[in-house]
């Protein structure tokens, strides 16, 4: 090796070590994002009318009822526990959807504010989802709801 070759190798080595050091410092400074598991719910029931309706509309039902536990703190002293339930996860054309089934005791009015109050939290919980499917079994209808938030 000649003197110029050693200089080039040293320069490449310095750039490589500098790059690795910067990436490592960035990795240390950035906390890892907690990803919620999509398939943590129960098995998909075969004899469910909702599953048959979704599959008849071309959706693949991936998971059954999923419970998402939530802990809240009030004034750093009082702790509250609650949960959100997602009825199903479904997929169509490589797009993931959260599924909420209409409940008689908790009807959803088809107004912007009612949809926001009832379903926006689910969309924010799983931002990789393409939207929320609201299934009304009385009318045998599936309504696809997507949210576009401008900040």
Give a verbal description of the structure:
The chain crosses the membrane at residues 6-24. Keywords: Membrane, Transmembrane, Transmembrane helix. By secondary structure, the chain is α+β, with helices and mostly antiparallel strands. The protein folds into 2 domains: 1-32; 49-145, Trna Endonuclease, Chain: A, domain 1 (3-Layer(aba) Sandwich). It is built from 3 helices and 7 strands; from the N terminus they run ααβββββαββ. The strands form 2 sheets. A 5-stranded mixed sheet has the order 1-4-5-6-7, sandwiched between helices. The protein is elongated. The chain starts with a helix and ends in a 6-residue tail after the last strand.
How would you concisely characterize the structure shown here?
The protein has helices spanning 3-29, 49-56, 112-125, and strands spanning 60-63, 66-74, 78-86, 88-92, 95-101, 131-136, 141-145. With 151 residues, the protein is α+β, with helices and mostly antiparallel strands. The chain is elongated and about 85 Å long.
Topology, element by element:
Blueprint: H1 3-29, H2 49-56, E1 60-63, E2 66-74, E3 78-86, E4 88-92, E5 95-101, H3 112-125, E6 131-136, E7 141-145
Parallel strand pairs: 5-6
Antiparallel strand pairs: 1-4, 2-3, 4-5, 6-7
Transmembrane segments: 6-24
Keywords: Membrane, Transmembrane, Transmembrane helix
């Amino acid at each position: 090796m000649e003197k110029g070759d050693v200089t080039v190798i040293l320069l490449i080595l310095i750039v490589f070590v500098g790059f690795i050091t910067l990436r490592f410092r960035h990795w240390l400074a950035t906390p890892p994002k907690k990803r919620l598991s999509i398939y943590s719910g129960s098995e998909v029931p075969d004899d469910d009318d909702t599953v048959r309706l979704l599959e008849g509309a071309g959706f693949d039902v991936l998971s059954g009822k999923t419970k998402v536990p939530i802990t809240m703190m009030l004034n750093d002293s009082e702790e509250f526990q609650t949960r959100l339930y997602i009825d199903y996860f479904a997929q169509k054309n490589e797009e993931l959807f959260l599924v909420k089934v209409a409940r008689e005791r908790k009807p959803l009015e088809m107004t912007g504010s009612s949809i926001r109050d009832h379903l926006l939290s689910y969309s924010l919980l799983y931002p990789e989802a393409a939207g929320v499917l609201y299934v009304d079994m009385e009318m045998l209808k599936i309504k696809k709801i997507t949210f576009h938030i401008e900040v």
